[in-house]
Amino acid sequence: MSVEITPHPPAVVKALESLSGGKDSKIVFEKGTYHFYTDGTVKRFYAVSNNVSSDKDVVFSIRNFDGLTIDGGGSTFVFHNIVFPFAISKSRNVHLENFCVDRGQTPQAVMRVKEVNENGFSLEIDRGKCPFRVENGNLIFEREWGELSSHDRILGLQSSSTKAVQYLVVGDCDKPTANLATTHVCADATETPDGVSFVFRPENKFPFRFDAGETLLSIVDGGRLSDLIFIERSENVKIRNITVKRALGMGVIAQISKNIEIDNFSTAPRSENDPCTLITADALHFVNCYGKLEVKNCKISDIGDDVINVHGMYTKVSTCDKENIYADIAHSEQRYFIPYEHGDRLEIIDDKTLEIVAEFKVGNASVISDDGSKVKIEGHFTKGFAENIKKDFLIEIPDKMPDVHIYDNSFSDFPNMRISGVGKIVIENNMICKSNTALIAQDLAKYWYESGRIKNLTFRNNMIDNSRSESFIMVGASGFEPDNCPKIHDRIEICGNTFKGVKKYAINISGTKNYTIHDNKFEGKKEILIDGKVTEQGL
Questions:
Q1: Model-level pTM?
Q2: pLDDT of res. 1
């Protein structure tokens, strides 16, 4: 069945409702420019990992479908306010293809550092492009959806050139700072003719990390409240021929889903003298997905966070008995998201040594706290004993990780690519340039609680140019120094690659039982780091 629709959310919602329950359906757009606002959207709560779980205003609500293609016909979809453009849930054989994505407003404020001294700093802000005002020491941005005040949110500042990040706590904002990913400064704001002046508050502990003349970006729309394409508990999803001019949040975020293909998902070239990122967070992000994950023919540049991130999720043991594990969701941006399902095999891991100490089979799992941070997992131990499990031990689903093939892509101007998991991982024939780190293959048991022991990873025939950090490739585990990292990874092969502009160590490997590094070309320094020890490239 095929339908044609008119350009507003109620028509999209009505078309999808008319096709619900059918098979092999198709929605086709006549080529044009379509604007989507929050009016008439489907309002639904989604727990989105690595984001903020909340009620979303969904434009394309794809739920319980078996066979659906949305063909944009070369159209441009412009999303306004804090809409949640695409949500694919509990569906099979869904294809999204042939359209371009833009935002009604650029979701970032552009600020130029004018002056920095021991008492504070000042920023130039173009009031015409990004209206703002200062009230009672708080910085307030005026947006099409309403107002964003620094009273309500800690602002993130990101260098447009280096991608370095620091948080800014302004005025009377009382949001907690204990678990921020990097340092923060506390200041009061005063409006100036060309921007804002900030004076450090007495409790400020950190220096301002940016220099005069540097251009900074700050997300002034939904941040991690919204993403472009969200996929959960679905199978056989294909995303093809999609171009992003601007997107808020992540480009694609998929969780607990099987067999995903990303083909020619690309960002449009950034206009001259425009420092804003084209996707404000990760371009492609996959959490406890399984089956096959294929990323090919993509040209992605100028994004605010990881170009690709593939990982599982850790929770932490609170208490347990023979039939129940009570666990904490450790990171606030994973709350309400439970990856555990009936029949899953869980591994219980000593958080101090990363040794697997027990296994547990899931019967049922549920959130048991109002804030979404506590989980009850019912089932039974298949290896090990409850009495040996200690508080803060880590819980992982090892089997829900995909075979990953990333090939024939061009990635540029992004912080990192993060890939982990026990599936077969092949990253080949890619152009990777202007990154902080071309590949981080780590188990992130600290801060983000992203799991990922590596069983078999091959990184071959890639061109890596102009990494901003001291290492192009980093393998290991967070929280451990290279010379004492537990050997949790099985096999890593790095071969046939060209590394240009090596500043210190092109490759830094630790925590790996078997590694092979051969036939690579190094233009720059030729030393690599193995378990914290310097060696030559010719291994």
A1: 0.95
A2: 42
